């Protein structure tokens, strides 16, 4: 990476780039426990110029996808933050239902400890995320990171989850990311104007639900990743808006990782095709064909193992991937505008 794209120890702290009301900085941590079909997230956007934070912790398995039926779900919204919070050693504010989670940097850019307890529900987390590589920044100016700095980092996640009073071992590969800059509000709206829905479709044709799915200007983002225990795997963002009539969508802003070496995806040769459940509208199966800047190829096939959905449309899913002859695990994050999702689902359920 060029010097401009290298992160330093100071980047473990919060940033403040402007006095913009929508200035936001996130810290996100994910891991899974495959033998229990469990996926888990910790996510906290901090609004620097409002001095407030919204955070949530959730774990899901194959027994229920919505907040009431997930293995665990808790969200604290717009909690007041202290002046000059230090992201290297912080306990996020809680609410009347209990305290927030704590985050401590153990090694700059590489190793962190996270702890959380909800004694009333018999839930707790205590784990470390140890990076398998330095934070990997995506070049600015490419969707979806046109202006905001963003990095992803694979790590070995090791520790414990307590779920309904049962202590469960965590020992596998996880991903964390950080993003900072303005987001939400006017930054979430497409500046383009369209005369009709068909003007939004780059390649008309194919199944009607696929045509609706790939309409431009709807805020569609799909982020998928899968890695084996040795870190071999892939990560990338899917450009659904540029899909062809058969459903093959190009991928960009991602990587292939093999033998410990990253290769940036060649967006002209990397693609994904998904298949959706006609009842739920969610992806159940994916085919991924990737080529990186080094000319390395990776073909992977993934299946959704368990799903969570906070609002009934966009989802996070635990995915089992076949990668280079071995089994990997990861996620499908499928982000929708609710009205757009309903239109796609209606087309998927149509009988005539």
Q: Identify the CATH architecture of the largest domain.
A: Beta Barrel
CATH class of the largest domain: Mainly Beta
Distance between the termini: 53 Å
Q: Roughly how many Å is the radius of gyration?
A: 20 Å
- Helix count, per DSSP? 2
Summarize the helix and strand pattern as letters. EEEEEEEEEEEHEEEEEEEEEH
**Strand pairing plus helix content: what structural class?**
mainly beta
List segments where confidence is low: pLDDT < 50 over at least 5 consecutive residues. none
The backbone outline, from C-alpha atoms, is globular
Helical residue percent?
under 10%
Describe the structure.
- By secondary structure, this protein is mainly beta.
- The chain folds into 2 domains: 3-182, AttH-like fold (Beta Barrel); 193-349, AttH-like fold, CATH 2.40.370.10.
- It has helices spanning 208-213, 338-349; strands at 23-33, 38-47, 52-60, 72-80, 89-91, 102-107, 111-118, 123-131, 136-137, 150-163, 166-182, 221-227, 233-238, 249-258, 261-264, 271-276, 283-291, 297-308, 315-323, 326-335.
- Strands 1, 2, 3, 4, 5, 6, 7, 8, 9, 10 and 11 form an 11-stranded antiparallel sheet that branches. An 8-stranded antiparallel barrel has the order 12-13-14-16-17-18-19-20.
- 39% of the residues are buried.
